Amino acid sequence: MLHCKNCKKKFYLIDEGSELEGKLIKCKHCNEQWIYESKTQYLENRLLELTSDLVKTESQINLRKKEQEEKISSLEDDLNSKKEELNKQKELADKVTAFENRLKQTEQLNLEELELDNKVNKIRKEIRTTSANIESKNKDIEEKTNYIESKINSYNEDASKTYSEEQKIKVNSSDVVDIGNGYKKSSDEKHNKNIDKKEKKFKFFSPGLIK
Question: What's residue 176's pLDDT?
Fold first, then answer.
């Protein structure tokens, strides 16, 4: 019993299989022709075909393996490049952190400068206030000094007027005046008046009297 490779139908031959080996066979149903081979030969040929297919498959696998290895090598190069870039980014991040710390120090210096500027302005304001107080105090002292001077001058004017009136009275008097005694007396009176003026000045400039 044979199977047609074309129509897949079965048909029978009277000859033994050993005698048909290598002979041309024709299908009784579809007239397809082929060379007959035994099962053993078929299996052997099939193994040869499978061996050839296996060789091709191994070759393709090796080719794909090589492609994969090349791809892996390329990917590893890309990965190493990315790692280098990552390391550079880390260095840049460290630099940024260092700049941030310096910026904080700069901000602290700026705050200290502002505080010093505020102190300078405060001191200038105190100087202006103190200068105004000094000017006002000097003005008060000057006014008191002018008042003291006017009082002293008024005392001197009153004393001069009194002395002049006394001389006029003595000159107009009909009494005889001893020139020597009169001169001596006049000198004594001037001396006493000068002493009185000094005492008045000392009393007037006494710390207890000035307020």
Answer: 43
